Amino acid sequence: MKNFMLECCVDSVESAVAAQKGGADRLELCSDLIIGGTTPGINLFLAVRQKVSIKIHVLIRPRFGDFCYTDEEFSIMKKDVEMFRRNGADGVVIGVLKRDGSLDVGRMKELVSAAGDMSITLHRAFDVCRDAFQTLEEAKALGIRTILTSGQKNNCLDGKDLIRQLVEKAGDEIDIMVGGGVRYTNIKELAKATNAKSFHMSGKVEVDSAMIYRNKDVNMGLPMLSEYTIFRTDEKEVAKVRDILCSYEP
């Protein structure tokens, strides 16, 4: 495949470096990837910027959960967009919905304005919006360059039919990026089924903690997650996807 985009979602310096070595074209930088990602700290961004040369888009999401934000949360989001712009981010990844499931166009305009000349991606808030095609047209009007979507399903393979329709409707005006379960085992099927040229993956694997002493009677967070398992992007997982895309012929 020619002119494809492979983006990796990462939440650590180690994962960012591995993604670049594996052949990622761009990073989506976040924190707390295990819960879908939240806004990263500025020092994480600066550390990653020192270590990689590929573009970095920063996720702006103040908390876990839905995408209908309070005034205080939205104020923080605007300030974060401005901060990352000042510090050299290449893009931001944003999404705000109204209570009725429609895109909050007014607030999105404010974030787009705050972003200046940075590239804008509408994240998977799109996947829980009420009307995918209306939101697509609104995103075009806002000047958004990319929509990240799993086709409004938990897994992008299940959403491949909607993704294909979105790719057709988007044309050359906006890029439809496939995310939510992209792996080397399904990338060829996804490319064929959707006609998309942009793909988003984490390539994460489980890494055992360096801790020797372990108190298994205490959970610091969600009880189903071990404090002694770390998720990191694996260079080889990214490279496998890139190699398949490079050799894929529609």
Provide a descriptive summary of the structure in words.
The chain is an alpha/beta fold. It has a single domain (5-247), classed as TIM Barrel (Alpha-Beta Barrel), CATH 3.20.20. It has helices spanning 13-22, 42-51, 71-86, 105-115, 132-142, 160-170, 187-194, 235-247; strands at 5-10, 26-29, 55-59, 91-94, 119-122, 146-149, 175-178, 198-201, 204-208, 229-233. The strands form 2 sheets. Strands 1-2-3-4-5-6-7-8 form an 8-stranded parallel beta barrel, surrounded by 5 helices. The longest helix has 16 residues, at 71-86. The protein is globular.
Task: Please give the CATH architecture.
Answer: Alpha-Beta Barrel
- Class from secondary-structure proportions: alpha/beta
The run of helices and strands is EHEHEHEHEHEHEHEEEH
Q: In what range is the share of β-strand residues?
A: 15-25%
CATH fold label: TIM Barrel
Mean pLDDT across residues: 96
Distance between termini? 7 Å
Q: What is the helical fraction, as a range of percent?
A: 25-40%
Radius of gyration: 18 Å
Which consecutive residue ranges, at least 5 long each, have pLDDT under 50?
none
GO molecular function: copper ion binding
Protein name: PF03932 family protein CutC
Subcellular location: Cytoplasm
Family: Belongs to the CutC family.
Short description:
The protein is α/β, with parallel strands linked by helices.
Keywords:
250 residues, TIM Barrel, eight-stranded parallel beta barrel, two-stranded antiparallel ribbon, 8 helices, 36% helix, globular, CutC-like_dom_sf, cytoplasm, copper ion binding
